[in-house]
Amino acid sequence: MTHNESSEATNGQVSEQSKLLRQLPAVDKILDSKDLEHLYSDVQRSVVSLAAAEVLGDARTSILAGDNSLIFVEEEGEKRLNEDALIDAVVRGVEKMSSPSMRRVVNATGVIIHTNFGRSVLAEEAVFAVAAAASGYSNLEYDVDRGRRWKRWKHVAASLASLCGAEDAVVVNNNAAAVLLCLNELAAGKEVIVSRGELVEIGGSFRMPDVMAASGAILREVGATNKTRLSDYERAITDKTALILKVHTSNYRIVGFSEETSVKELSALCQKFNLPLMVDLGSGLIGGQDSLRMPDGIKMDEPLVPDTLRDGADIVAFSGDKLLGASQAGIVVGKRNLVERTASNQMARALRIDKLSLAALDATLKLYTKWPTRAHEHIPTLAMLTMSVNEMSIRAEEIRTRLGSLLGSDFEVDVEPGVSKAGGGTLPLLELPTVLVSVSSPKVSADAIEKALRLAPTPVIARIAEDKVLLDPRTLLDGDLDALVDAFRSVTTNGNE
């Protein structure tokens, strides 16, 4: 193609786009349509206006990208605005704006503590507790026995102290807040010694150095990325040192030529210099291998909160919605004087836990207290972690049978071995054997199947590998199988490209 021919083609494309753009009506004209009059009795005109503006914006973007199929039809070789499609798009937009944005999805990824899907699923008892707290008044900050006000975290302090072997406990809204609060109270304006290999980044690009800076503490890095010895910490101690912080690298591991200093070693060093030792455990596992009963000889490389305190940590922070299996919370346990100082910090009110999360946490902790060796049977996160391959196989066969009869000969539905992951920035090296259900078709791509599942009335989120959609039964909950099958009905009607 010559330069002139290329220019003519480009000009022709621009001309076509201009014609289509000129057909798009103004928002006010759409709002005056009689086909939208029925909406105004249920929603404000401003909502319809916003939905119309979004539809027009999407249409402009589509036209400029060369895709004219959104609200246009072709008649006699010319593209014409499909006014019915435009109105339908506005109506759908209004319905979407009028409905809750957050809704249930089916997690078929096999990632148990999936941050994008809300992390840990609550136990039935915790769900009831949340409903009770939400549907009426409660003694959130009221001591019924003494008839006076008290602190909300007292509802869970005794349970946490007992389960973790701590003197006291306080709870805020998440673990980053817990670390921020502790450092602000115990180390503002002074140095905190941390290994370079433990300066972690958690979800959403929040980094430990940034959290420390926000707290007012001064970071003092020691050691190397892969090796930090006890002597590195000791050489860094000065009269400006407030505490030593050990951070559990819960979302990654340094392997190979590496070395780290244990909590026991750091505790002895801190006692020598009369410094507190703080440990950020992140994921917060409070039950051991015996209570979890991991299947198939699998062992979890994860420090326990009670063990960390027994090894000499003075104050420990961890999450409520990871391996604890409860609601979002930042939990601080340890020596009473340090916990009380942290709880009395002025930032505590800004970072406090809400009543619904607190109710869920309280109910979950009671399950650990009531069933010390069987908590994994009652807490969904632990139940999924401890599920056996045999259980996975039974579930996978049921899924394969139901999908096979639904999808027919155009689709191949099979089972194959695979692995599930803990997720949520926990147990990064743990691979849990599972049995996957794979779905593929010579007529429909894996991407098209995945999209149809994702856009179903109850979205199903799955994995793709080697042009197959993979479904992991480990993370399917009660009632999910019916929703999964219903989602595949849309694959058979809408999945063809």
Helix content: 40-55%
Assigned CATH superfamily of the largest domain: Type I PLP-dependent aspartate aminotransferase-like (Major domain)
Average pLDDT, all residues = 90
Strand content: 15-25%
CATH architecture of the largest domain: 3-Layer(aba) Sandwich
Rg estimate, integer Å: 28 Å
Counting DSSP E segments of at least 2 residues, the number of strands comes to 19
Large-scale geometry: globular
Q: Summarize the main sheet.
A: 7 strands, mixed
Which structural category do the helix and sheet elements fall into?
A: alpha/beta
Kindly report the CATH topology of the largest domain: Aspartate Aminotransferase, domain 2
End-to-end gap: 31 Å
Spatial strand order of the main sheet = 6-14-13-12-11-7-10
CATH class wording of the largest domain: Alpha Beta
- Annotation field: number of helices: 18
Low-confidence stretches: 3-10
Give the domain tally.
3
What does this structure look like?
This protein is α/β, with parallel strands linked by helices and 497 residues long. It has three domains: 96 residues, no CATH class; 117 residues, Alpha-Beta Complex (Aspartate Aminotransferase, domain 1), CATH 3.90.1150; 255 residues, Type I PLP-dependent aspartate aminotransferase-like (Major domain) (Aspartate Aminotransferase, domain 2). Helix content is 41%, strand content 17%. The relative contact order is 0.12. The N terminus is likely disordered.
